[in-house]
Amino acid sequence: MDSMRDEEKYTNTEEQLLYLQKLLDEEDTAALNELFNELDILAIARTLESFPAKTRDLLWEYIPETLLGEVLAEVDEDIRADYIEDLSASDVEQIVKGLDAQEVAEVLDVADEEIKTTVYASLDQEIRAQVENLYTYEEDMVGRYMDPETVNVKQGVSLEAVQRYIRIHHLLDDDSQQVMITDKDKRLLGTLTLIDLVKQPQESTVDEFMDDAPYTLNDQMKVSDAAALLRSKELPFVPVCNSDGLLVGQLNAADVLEITQDDADMTLKHMSGVSDEEEVFTPILRSAKSRGIWLGINLLTAFLAAFVIGQFEAVLDQIVALAILMPVVASMGGIAGSQTLTVVIRGLALGQIAGNNKQWLYNKEMWVGMSNGLVWALVVGGISYLWFSDPLITLVITLAIFINMSLANLSGVLIPLVLKRLQIDPALSGAVILTTVTDVVGFLSFLGLATLIIL
């Protein structure tokens, strides 16, 4: 790569994204191939998640074939499912060849049963047994996240023999941090660090230096609870045992990081009623559908507040009907905007939003807002007509809901981007500003339309 190209090279995630967009615009095939050969698995996965589906399809062509399986195991589930959907069983067989049990399980989890059956038959017997064992656990259990491959030896063996055994069978990898000591039934007796394995006298046995009371996790434990424990104890590695004390796997630093990130993502998304699967560039219809469910739930709570106010309707004249419905307008705009805000703030934190993909994001959120706005405006309008039997009030509330929800989605994109440019943390102040915007827009549109149509 020439000196000019070197100057254009990225120094952080956002600059990498801008650089990649430039190469795509220039259709620089050679530079794209070179870039993807330089990136590691995690970087490639995050890059794919930073583009909408059409662009992502182009980028698949530049991923080295030897890395494709590991990349698929790392990307978000909906992206993996979209890619696997168009592949044959033989294609999937090639992709999973050489992967460990965890990665094979991730890839096959989104495949249909026919492909699973065919690919299972092609797997090494040991890998197949490990994959099937992983599938016996619920998705929120430690056993589903653990690495079933462990380096374990029997008690009484010399350190020299262990080293020789490891070298002959090529057992150590980047994730291995300790050797497990087990009895003949594979019951965990202790652990030996790799440092002790190397530095202690080679004629010594593993029993002399092993930790005979290692911290372990139960394979049936909820993964969120396990992550909290490991963070509090600052443990980068822990053996996993079943209820009988038999060693079934291990959690490594990478597994703990994945658990922590997944837990944080779900917590953040759940706070705003966003589906676990939704990402920044999830397709429009899928985003609208997943958010629409939570908008419906929010509508119930909004009408509960309106119902309480409506109990005083008998002593008020018709104009007070508008005051009864005002909280519904503000609340629906608020939840729609906060859903968008959550996804965008997460995208900014991961460096997925930069350059020309902002325009795609604006367009997506505009259509999501208008789609959900239209649906829920009609729902609210219908309920309002049944409640008050007034077509003018029904028309006002329907138009106001549509306007506020559409503008709320755009505000959910614009507010964090503007705050970031002003070097203000969107996560700290974005929600406050968004609430103000949706309330003001909601009340102005609602009362303004009422003034024009009713009075």
Write the layout of secondary structure elements.
Elements: H1 3-8, H2 13-26, H3 29-38, H4 41-48, H5 53-60, H6 68-74, H7 77-84, H8 89-96, H9 101-108, H10 113-122, H11 125-135, H12 142-145, E1 152-154, H13 159-169, E2 178-182, E3 188-193, H14 194-199, H15 206-209, E4 217-218, H16 223-233, E5 238-241, E6 247-251, H17 253-271, H18 284-310, H19 320-349, H20 357-388, H21 391-421, H22 426-453
Parallel strand pairs: 1-2, 4-5
Antiparallel strand pairs: 2-3, 5-6
Helix pairs in contact: 4-6, 6-9, 8-10, 9-11, 16-17, 18-19, 18-20, 19-20, 19-21, 19-22, 20-21, 21-22
Characterise this structure.
This protein has 22 helices and six strands. It has helices spanning 3-8, 13-26, 29-38, 41-48, 53-60, 68-74, 77-84, 89-96, 101-108, 113-122, 125-135, 142-145, 159-169, 194-199, 206-209, 223-233, 253-271, 284-310, 320-349, 357-388, 391-421, 426-453, and strands at 152-154, 178-182, 188-193, 217-218, 238-241, 247-251. A three-stranded mixed beta sheet has the order 1-2-3. A three-stranded mixed beta sheet has the order 4-5-6. Strand 5 (238-241) and strand 6 (247-251) form a beta hairpin. Helix 18 runs parallel beside helix 20 (357-388). The longest helix is centred in the C-terminal third of the chain and has 32 residues, at 357-388. The N and C termini lie far apart (70 Å). Mean pLDDT is 81; it is low at 1-8 and 312-316.
